[in-house]
């Protein structure tokens, strides 16, 4: 399976009582289906999956599966702290229709998460999983980095098909691409700020928060790059910087949801303990998108 293009890391809408609003999730996906996104990441970091029960997670996967057409790939975040629990949950997600398991690095006992520990963890999962595995490196949340050496070593397993690297480190991304050049291994950036330079060094696409609000602009960078129109691709990339910072490092998931509301998607409130952005912060986010020419 070739993982390429833009994948929004789908947020989880909640109703006024804090329950998952499945109808709103369906409406968001149906609207994204009309864009050029290649698929979706369900239960990623931006879905607030760490706040969902297992039952809620599986219901979200089922709802997404009903709304996602066969032409688009459904990635599902199935990584948990223990190897055994990850294997069990990956099987359940696959049974609910997930096409690919995206597995975050276990990190609670981070001082023990060595190269050898990662190798044992991911190889055991990949051996048993009925669906392909995509590695997920996100140091901003885990305070732990999967280096190029480990990603390269894991790439030789036939059921490990790629990595989502959200380190924002283009040097590391380029090293992973170089070391896995002989493998059928897809490297995707998790940073919208680095999408264009990542494509230039061989990345196959990106899984980026801002694609939940303006998917057409993210897909546009890939289209312009493939057309050889590097000047416009670079210009569009530069326009994405301010909004990307606003919905990731500055305001996080609450800011992303606010941005989605601005563009007519169902963003809504985050789940506690995340607090919603203030009215003043919403205006700042709106100004950021307006200054970039997206609103």
TrEMBL record:
Presence of keyword Lyase: yes
GO MF, any single term: 4-hydroxy-tetrahydrodipicolinate synthase activity
Record: residues binding pyruvate: 207
InterPro entries membership: Aldolase_TIM, DapA-like, Schiff_base-form_aldolases_AS
Entry-linked PROSITE patterns: DHDPS_2 (PS00666)
Active site per the UniProt annotation: 136 (proton donor/acceptor), 164 (schiff-base intermediate with substrate)
Gene Ontology biological-process annotations: small molecule metabolic process
The entry's keywords: Lyase, Schiff base
Family (UniProt): Belongs to the DapA family.
PANTHER family in the cross-refs: 4-HYDROXY-2-OXOGLUTARATE ALDOLASE, MITOCHONDRIAL, DIHYDRODIPICOLINATE SYNTHASE
Protein name: Dihydrodipicolinate synthase/N-acetylneuraminate lyase
């Amino acid at each position: 399976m070739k993982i390429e293009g833009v994948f929004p890391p789908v947020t989880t809408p909640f109703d006024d009582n804090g329950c998952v609003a499945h109808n709103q999730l369906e409406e968001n996906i149906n609207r994204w289906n009309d864009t050029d996104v290649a698929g979706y990441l369900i239960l990623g970091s931006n879905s607030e999956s760490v706040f969902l029960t297992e039952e809620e997670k599986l219901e979200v996967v089922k709802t997404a599966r009903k709304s996602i057409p066969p032409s688009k790939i459904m990635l599902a975040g199935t990584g948990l702290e223990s190897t055994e629990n990850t294997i069990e949950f990956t099987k359940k997600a696959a049974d609910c229709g997930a096409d690919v398991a995206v597995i975050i690095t276990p990190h609670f006992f981070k001082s023990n998460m060595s190269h050898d520990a990662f190798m044992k963890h991911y190889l055991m999962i990949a051996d048993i999983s009925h669906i392909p595995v995509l590695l997920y490196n996100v140091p901003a949340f885990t305070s732990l980095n999967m280096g190029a050496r480990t990603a390269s070593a894991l790439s030789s397993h036939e059921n490990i098909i790629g990595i989502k690297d959200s380190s924002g480190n283009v040097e590391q991304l380029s090293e992973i691409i170089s070391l896995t050049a002989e493998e059928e291994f897809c490297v995707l950036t998790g940073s919208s700020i680095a999408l264009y330079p990542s494509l230039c060094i061989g990345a196959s696409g990106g899984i980026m928060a801002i694609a939940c609000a303006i998917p057409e602009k993210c897909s546009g960078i890939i289209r312009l790059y493939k057309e050889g129109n590097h000047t416009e691709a670079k210009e569009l990339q530069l326009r994405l910087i301010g909004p990307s910072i606003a919905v990731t490092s500055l305001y996080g998931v609450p800011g992303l949801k606010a941005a989605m509301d601005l563009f007519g998607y169902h963003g809504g409130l985050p789940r506690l303990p995340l607090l919603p952005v203030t009215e003043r912060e919403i205006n700042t986010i709106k100004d950021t998108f307006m200054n970039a020419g997206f609103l």
